[in-house]
Amino acid sequence: MRALAVAVKDNTTVTRLDLSSNHISPEGAAALAQGLKHNKTIARLNLHWNSLGDVGAVALADALTHNTAVTTACTSIGLEGTVALAEMLKHNTTITALFLSDNSIGDEGVVALSEMLKHNMTITYLVLGNNSIGDLGAKALAEMLKHNTTIMEILVYTNSISPVGGAALGAVMDQNRTLKCIYIEKNSPATARAFGAALPVDRNIDTGSWDDDPEGRAAYKEARQGKKTQQQQMLFTACENGDVEAVASLIDQDHAQVSQQDNQGDTPLHVACRHNQPATVKLLLDKGADTAIKNSKGNTPYNTAAVSGHLALTTIEGLKPANDQQQQPSSTAPNTRPTEQAHRAAVQARMMEIATRFSKHMAGRAKIGLSGQGRAGKTTLVDSLLGKEFNSQQHSTLGATSKDMSVTVHTMEVCDWKESEERGTEFMRSLYGTAMAQESGVDKEMEKAVTTVHAKLSAGVVEDEEPAARLVKNDSTTGRSTRPSQTPSSRTASTTTPSTASISRPVSPRLVHVTAAPAVERQPGQQARSSDQGDDDTDAPDNAATPSISEEEVEKAIKDFDFDATLGEGKTQVSFKIFDLGGQSTFYIFHPFFLTKYAVYLLVFSMEDLLHQDKSKRAESWEFMEHWLSSLHLHAKGAPVLIIGTFADVVSKRKQHENISRDIYSRLRHNPAFPGVIHNDKHGLWFWPVDNTKSINDPMIQDLRQTISSTALAQEYVSQEVAVPYLHLYDKLNAIARDEKRPLLTFDEVVKIARSCGLRTREETRACLQFLHLYSMVLYYDTVPGMEDFVILSPQWAVDTMTRVIRNFDLHRDVRDGEARAVGAQLWDDLVDRGILHRRLLGVLWNDVHSNLVMPFLRLMMQYGLCIEYSPPKLVDSRRALARTNSGHGDNATAKGSKGNSPGHQQYLVPAILPMTIRHNSSTMASVTLSTTAAQQVNPYLGYEKKTAFVAFSLKQFKQSASVQVEHAKHASFLPEGLFTVVLAHVMAHAQHGASQEPKLSRTHAICFMESTKLELQLVPAVGGIKMKITSAQPRAMLHMLHTMISEAARERYPELKSSLLLPYDDKTLLFFEDVLHHHKRKQDMWVDEQLLSPDDLIAKYGPLLPVLGLQDKYDVFISYRQRANSGLVMALHPRLEQRNLVAFLDANNLETGLNFKLSFMTAIGLSLVACPIVSAATIMQMRQLQHSDYCDNVLLEWMTMLALHEFQRAHEKDDEKEQHAKIRLRRVVPVFVSSAWHNANDSSSMNKGGASQYDSFDNMKRLAMTLPNVVSKETATALDQYFTQVLHLPSPQQHRSVRETVLSLFDIDAVIALDATVDRTSQLRDIAEKVRQVAVSAIKGQPLASAPHPEPMQEQGGVEFDEEFKAWLSTNKLLPHMHDALEEVGAANFAMLEVLVDTGVVGVNKLQEMGVRAGPAHLFMQRFQEHRAAANAAKQSCCCLLM
């Protein structure tokens, strides 16, 4: 380097010196610097990627102070070197380009450079990429650019600049107009967005290609466009309002283009002319506005003034284009606006034409839903939108309220609101709105807006597309829509939505004679109701659909119409029905009644809470917003959402609003509903900060109102056509509700009224009611048994009725509460404190509900999961075996025949009003707290727990390997509020009948006791799901059924939810059960992160939850049931069989991989003493499909197998024991006939619970069996033959029964009958288990026992009562405190039981340690037991009686 330095000193020819990527040390740099002091020719110096150090950099800086030749410098330096370089540049006047990328300059170095560059007038190119520059450095550069006018390009890519620094650099571009290029990519998308939002609209600057930062490029362009749109809206609004000062400022200060055009082709001058603003017109002309520009209607600003009737404007000099003095408006309207009288006449004529010539009107209706946290100010916001004065004493909303708004449409962006008055009819309202829309042309504007939405749809990705879906098509000759009447678009979005969301196309409705009515959106699990059978008039001709209303009547109605109250300057009128949904979490469970995709939603939050000093308060606010967006995605997928922040009187600073907006985007953008969130383009925010204390005087409220209007008007369901008879029927129903104060009618009453409106058939009436239900004008639930007979005229009445039993009883009182409390203090306490509703209380709380409607309305609530039928648990009196209830539940329900089963003594569990938690004082959990929030506080993830699994819920499968980190599971999860109570309702519908003591229930935690099994469910947000802890000897079968039940319950309410079964591994990791099961069945090692688990490790950790590989050689009972029909019964039954020491084979999910499923369960039947087919109407009904297609029905195969084996045994019952077949132990077939009461609540098969109830008798069920096909299922018979030949090595049965014969054979066998649906199911369950036990005992008859001698049933308490001798032995050996819980868990109450458990491997040193016993006591216990066994000489050969 020294030699080079000497050469540089004297060289006069070299002009460029590139020494990059060498190992030049500080000493070498210092030597080179000495040479450069004297060199006069080198103009470009590159020392990048060396090790100059601060010493070398300082030396070079000193050299360049004296060098006047170098114009471009590339150096590798740090902070001290940068400071020295900055000092040098104060004196150097030759360097024009400075490359300092890929260093560690940091903010301090940039601050030093910026101070120098304020005065340096030679550098034009500055590269500072990849230098760890933050906001301090970015602000310093921005401040420098206010003074420096020579720098043309600055590169600050790949730094740490946040949105604050990005905004500073963007904003300075307004003052600095000389900088041509700035590269800011690869900082962050948020920084790029902030830079674009701050950059002046008119400032054209090169920001590079962004090739390596596509997200940043998209954010920058989006912000840039948003800024332009915002400025345009501000300019157009100022022109509309005549704000001359604002218009001047926007043009002069913000450089707004004076002749820019909006989506309709209007310029600011068009807007000023339309709204009669002469001063603004003159200002725009002075600023050079182009008067010749035509809008989409072909009108110049002059024409617009003429069409609008503003004659004074047409006289302003310069407004009329000089080149076309004869130009006329292209509109069909004359040059001047018609007089008010002429305009009225034109509208009346149009109304008459529509009424007499057309059978459909524009619907002109939209739904607005307000949602959000309690006390966020939703109700006050509605008042503000209506222009009402602020009410500081506004009460909290109870459940939900609704009101109608009349909205006058001036343009798609300009509307006026007022609360609708009760006068007038829906027919006249829609007729007037349709006429005004056609007269003014706004109908085509609305159609264009809908088409724009669909254009976005076709350009984007469509989810769940229906094959029959069609976009709107227009007839170019008539201008009218030629589309068939459709279901409103399932995706609704404002034309100003900044991003394209996924949109579901509208589906084709079912057709009826009068109109193609939109199909009502079905709730999960509902089925479309077929046409009424037996109607005499279902084939009425088409022309019967037109109502008999004469032209004279129409003409009179039009003349009597109050035009003075409705006719204004608007182009049409529409009605908004606004629903204010209660914010308390108690009400969330019935919000699905009102959340549909055919609405626009306002998500309201308190900015004051969001910025609260209390961290938990802030967190809760965000959780509420997440919850509501999630709910809207589940129940109203695709609907547009506007986010509203209240308390702008407290949180008033723009900076605060910007920070909240950034947080909204960063926190909520991953929510699946966020694509539907409307951006506040005018103010550059993701929400509208409103001050309700100012009401309509708050400009933000005004902007919000217009955005709501334009968003709603762009929805297809607003402009879709509706049959005139529908309108007439609604008017008559509305008049009855208003004048006669009747909240509901019977369906038959409505049918009679409908005939007078032109609806001739019951099916047409039903289609009309479904359409009105869609708009919440009436409520009609024709899929709920009993509710199809009623039509609710007042949706508010339905809400009020439900909230009498579902509310916060401390916050919301009812006048009936005192009378209800007088019915019984215990009954009232059960409702308020434990969520148990006694039917007797409804006689008071629903005293105005007709007795015929009470049960259908309860069924409606049950279908939505609002309540379930509840049977209090019963305890067994061991002396008298007399059933009685636990006193904690008020009324004692008794055995069959008692009054406890009468309707007046029925009980219902209402999950939504259960306590928030079990073990915490309710006062610490406010009623407005979300269950997920409460669960986060009280139900943490505890890491590995034995006999525990989790069901995690998500919208997308998140599995990537056999394990998942807890944090990742939480991030990927999706937990709708109320999910736990939905699941709890389904589980309790079955588990309650096997309960042995009172359950402990809450909205986040539940514990049920089923014989010796303790079932615990817990909402655990940390893993995004529900914990299942099953404390029993062998919980594997319960886990299988419980997981299935929980998953199906969740999918029934939330069809998009996906579930994953997880096992806890440690405090950070969960394992997917399917992978554990896969490796267990294949006996393979399994990797968990970097740890390898052997098959034995898996068994040691998860053995009780995993199936025992292979089949046992003996079973007591084989339970045959159809999973979708009666799994709930089996889930409740199996703990009772286990308690009675029966080994029961439930299903074949314990088979090793490779084993034949069918052959295995048939083998298990043969190895069982008793086979119990569960016979129900739903099970039989499924077999009717064999009439049309042959397949192997597994349930039928099980029944054919047990009958064939039973016949074989009877034929060989006299054979010697040695000659008996080793694989056939079957002695008895005992059918169990069960009623519809045991039908799965969430069964989505062809027969629902109501349909099954007609077969709740032995004779009726037998008649159902007689309808089965009298054919042999060849597929099923073939499987049976394979079992006989391949497993038993016997000839196939000579003759196979038909499907009908097989089922009818069960009716001829002694059976357990449980067909009385009115009998208490807990008693039924106990009887079934006891009778099965008795049959099993009688079937032993000298056979090798599959279990120990069957003792009397143990007391049905929560624990196990130890035998006195056994307990004394434990105490003598000082083992009782160590062993008590473990022995109780496995049911070892005496020496005989313990011997069985030890012999079968259930109890041993390792097993005891797994159950929590320390190693020392475990070894001592086993040693003492073996000593006792030897001394007593009482070893026995027996198997453990545990449930498979």
From TrEMBL:
<keyword id="KW-0547">Nucleotide-binding</keyword>
<dbReference type="InterPro" id="IPR002110">
    <property type="entry name" value="Ankyrin_rpt"/>
</dbReference>
<dbReference type="InterPro" id="IPR001611">
    <property type="entry name" value="Leu-rich_rpt"/>
</dbReference>
<dbReference type="InterPro" id="IPR032171">
    <property type="entry name" value="COR-A"/>
</dbReference>
<keyword id="KW-0677">Repeat</keyword>
<keyword id="KW-0067">ATP-binding</keyword>
<dbReference type="InterPro" id="IPR036770">
    <property type="entry name" value="Ankyrin_rpt-contain_sf"/>
</dbReference>
<dbReference type="InterPro" id="IPR020859">
    <property type="entry name" value="ROC"/>
</dbReference>
<keyword id="KW-0418">Kinase</keyword>
<feature type="domain" description="Roc">
    <location>
        <begin position="359"/>
        <end position="715"/>
    </location>
</feature>
<dbReference type="InterPro" id="IPR035897">
    <property type="entry name" value="Toll_tir_struct_dom_sf"/>
</dbReference>
<dbReference type="GO" id="GO:0004674">
    <property type="term" value="F:protein serine/threonine kinase activity"/>
</dbReference>
<feature type="region of interest" description="Disordered">
    <location>
        <begin position="885"/>
        <end position="904"/>
    </location>
</feature>
<feature type="region of interest" description="Disordered">
    <location>
        <begin position="322"/>
        <end position="345"/>
    </location>
</feature>
<feature type="repeat" description="ANK">
    <location>
        <begin position="264"/>
        <end position="296"/>
    </location>
</feature>
<dbReference type="Pfam" id="PF08477">
    <property type="entry name" value="Roc"/>
</dbReference>
<dbReference type="InterPro" id="IPR027417">
    <property type="entry name" value="P-loop_NTPase"/>
</dbReference>
<keyword id="KW-0723">Serine/threonine-protein kinase</keyword>
<feature type="compositionally biased region" description="Polar residues">
    <location>
        <begin position="323"/>
        <end position="339"/>
    </location>
</feature>
<dbReference type="Pfam" id="PF13516">
    <property type="entry name" value="LRR_6"/>
</dbReference>
<dbReference type="InterPro" id="IPR052201">
    <property type="entry name" value="LRR-containing_regulator"/>
</dbReference>
<feature type="region of interest" description="Disordered">
    <location>
        <begin position="461"/>
        <end position="553"/>
    </location>
</feature>
<dbReference type="InterPro" id="IPR032675">
    <property type="entry name" value="LRR_dom_sf"/>
</dbReference>
<protein>
    <recommendedName>
        <fullName>non-specific serine/threonine protein kinase</fullName>
        <ecNumber>2.7.11.1</ecNumber>
    </recommendedName>
</protein>
<keyword id="KW-0040">ANK repeat</keyword>
<dbReference type="Pfam" id="PF12796">
    <property type="entry name" value="Ank_2"/>
</dbReference>
<dbReference type="Pfam" id="PF16095">
    <property type="entry name" value="COR-A"/>
</dbReference>
<dbReference type="GO" id="GO:0005524">
    <property type="term" value="F:ATP binding"/>
</dbReference>
<keyword id="KW-0808">Transferase</keyword>
<dbReference type="InterPro" id="IPR036388">
    <property type="entry name" value="WH-like_DNA-bd_sf"/>
</dbReference>
<feature type="compositionally biased region" description="Low complexity">
    <location>
        <begin position="476"/>
        <end position="506"/>
    </location>
</feature>
